[in-house]
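To fix ideas at the outset, we first show an illustrative case, written as a sequence plus integers encoding its fold:
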Amino acid sequence: VLENRDLQDSIKPQKVEFRSLNFNSTLHWQPGRAREARDTVYFVQYKVYGQRTWQNKDSCWGIQNHVCDLTNETSDIQEPYYGRVRAASAGIYSHWSLSCRFTPWRETVIGPPMVTVMHSNKSIILKLQAPRSPYKRRKGSKIPMTNYYDLLYQVFIINNLLDEQHRVLVYEGKGKVIKIEDLRPGVSYCIVAKIYVPMLDRSSAYSSRQCFML
């Protein structure tokens, strides 16, 4: 019995946590203290905070991975959720390991905007596009993150003659098409953009750099 209890404890999953980008939400965990046996499998359940019964996630039942996609199960983005995981090895089942409470709207990470650059002789025009969520409209297109939050675009310009850290904020607002004028011909510039969410006081990562010379 003691040996079984030791095995139970040593295979119990560790560090169960939700990770979420643009509402693509997955449950992650690490194997228990025991060096993971080849036959260790995992079982995932989830529930809304306040519900009594846990739901099985069928496609994460008896899996060998350490990640389970719960995007569809957490689609009511204002609700708080829990996930939990247990392991089994050699016919022994561990106790459940519980995640912290997870509220998608509050905790998802918003990704950077897509930036398209078009330039004329002294100015450039930028088209900005917010990332899309995994959730779809009735017609099938994915709902953009601007439907869920009040988002501001921030556009920075880097003059490559100056130092890389010298990012100048040239625009902040909701406009999706922006014109930047009075740029010097023959100078190499780079543009990066990010999204700011005032309500949560959080920013996305920067978009990838787009460089050009007029």
The longest strand covers residues 188-197. The chain has two domains: 1-106, 114-213. The radius of gyration is 23 Å.
